[in-house]
Amino acid sequence: MNTAEIRNIAVPKVLKLVFSISFMVSCAQEKNASINGSLDNHTFNSAYSDSVNFAATNIFSVIKFKKAEQKNSSSINRDGLYYNQESYTEYLRDGRKLYQKYNYDTNAVVEKFHYKNNLLVLKESVENKNRSRYNWLFYNKENNLQEEIEYKKDDSQSFIYEGYTQYSYSSEAKKITVKILDYGYDSIADPEKEYIFEFPFLTKKTPLYQSKIHRYQWMNGTYKPIDTKDYIIENRDVTFRYDKSGYLLSETWFANHHSLENKTEYYYSKDYLERTEQQYHMLGTEKSTKTTRRYDDHNNLVFEQSTEYTGHLQYAESFEYVYDEQGNWISKKHYRQDPDEGANSKKKLIDYEYREIKYYDPNSEPKSFSLPEFPKAAEDIRIKIPKISNEKQSQINAFQEAVKSGNFDTEITLKKAKTLEEFTPKFWNLKDQNFGNLDNSPEDEAVCVYETPIEGDLGFAQSLAIYKKEGENWVLWHQSTNPILSTEHGGMMGNPYEGISIKNKTIIVNHFGGSRQKWHYTHRYRFQNNAWYLIGASVNFGSPCDYFQSLDYNISTGDAIFDYYSETCSKNNAVQTKNWKEKVNKKIPSPLMDEFQVGENRIELKSKKTEMFY
What we know:
Blueprint: H1 3-8, H2 13-18, H3 31-36, H4 42-46, E1 59-67, E2 76-78, E3 81-91, E4 97-104, E5 107-116, E6 119-128, E7 131-139, E8 145-153, E9 160-172, E10 175-183, E11 193-198, E12 201-205, E13 211-219, E14 222-231, E15 236-242, E16 248-255, E17 259-268, E18 274-281, E19 286-295, E20 301-307, E21 313-323, E22 329-337, E23 348-359, H5 376-379, H6 381-405, E24 416-417, E25 429-436, E26 445-455, E27 460-470, E28 473-480, E29 497-503, E30 506-514, E31 518-528, E32 531-543, E33 547-554, E34 559-569, E35 574-585, E36 602-605, E37 610-613
Antiparallel strand pairs: 1-3, 1-23, 2-3, 3-4, 4-5, 5-6, 6-7, 7-8, 8-9, 9-10, 10-11, 11-12, 12-13, 13-14, 14-15, 15-16, 16-17, 17-18, 18-19, 19-20, 20-21, 21-22, 22-23, 24-28, 25-26, 26-27, 27-28, 29-30, 30-31, 31-32, 32-33, 33-34, 34-35, 36-37
């Protein structure tokens, strides 16, 4: 399969997850390049990533220009349209990147690709004047990937560890097995991945991925997925079927290995220039959205339109190209037509870009730059990181065993110590601490927050401890798990604990969580009547382009202020549609800290038929 076919073949939803850039390295079909390109190493594959964007090789440089969203002094005019430069890239003669400069946010990023013995050994990224990132690749005697070491440096530090990957190989008969260990920035190793090459098949075992086992088959110069096991949930299979030319015919999902769950089918004209994607719903039994795509003789998409299962046509997308003599497009325009405006409605130009492509000639002079020295600190990674990882993993294993057996302290047992750190029980993690005055004594008190091995309703319980100073020692004043939500209470946002502070002789605890709709809690506790009580709560809840609602509740006085506004968002602005604020008095006894349940207490505003939980 040529690069144009790879670029334009209909890519289904699962295929997008598992069809990595590595399978596009069809231009390098030597044994080592085929293996290296199929190991999902982002650094190695980034050198090849542009090869699918061009029909002809031998390209020296490409300047990419995109539609100018806002015209400025650097915008250029071409045929009455304004463009801004997006990137400048130089290539080796075989299509691999040599140098690239592009804009990211407000920074100009420069990437240099260093090669040795025709292998990529370093990707050097200068992200701004003050920060650079380095990805070093090392190979074994067979020129297969053996290691990747990633680090960065900035104004404050000359070496900041980012990641380390090890590759190990074993061979037998016609089978090569590659085991991959990734050590992240936290020095902890991910579960080991295993890639098994038995030509023409490749099997990937990836415990950390959404798909645990997926198999590929070599077709027309590239690996293509043929089935996926345990996708997202256990016992779900996804299978792919192709025609003789390597074009995808179907993607079928099965629950419990045999029960049809979902499917998508693909149909082609004899010349493959018209391609239809038919999705099914109702457990794969009834036709749903159908998408028709047409391609030109250069195999570039020129038309796309979907039809809903009701028969309603969606926007018609069309594309116009101008090609150079080598068959690469140098101008691309994207039009959109609204079928609801009638068959003869005018196409609207919504995006456009063009490329200035220069090809190698006898006068071409590619950029040249020297290979930086590999730092001693990076060499130490090979020994230090696996050792640190093993130590951390041992701690994790010990923690998990303690949780399983229940062999841990459920509260802080030490009553007096020189330092706050000494109070931390085994298998507890001191997460945060702060200082301030909580009573009339001249010395500041301390508050600490811990993650514990106590299993909560969502994740692990977290504990708040309060300490007083007695001479040179700290003494435990009070501890409770009630004021801090458990570790997984934040939903998509993770651990909801956001911070703790002391102000006006009160302890202030902040939480944050949610998904699209976010929530934020602030609770205030004070020592009075020889116990700790909740005296106030503030809550914010909502999401942009919907509504926001807040509550500020002074439990000591009973004053509760409700605030609400909603908004509807259009493409260019947000319009507030409703806004009100009301104060009421809801006097209740102050709850004890040890009895209060965060987020489970209801207060009602009858006049607005609304309620909030604090």
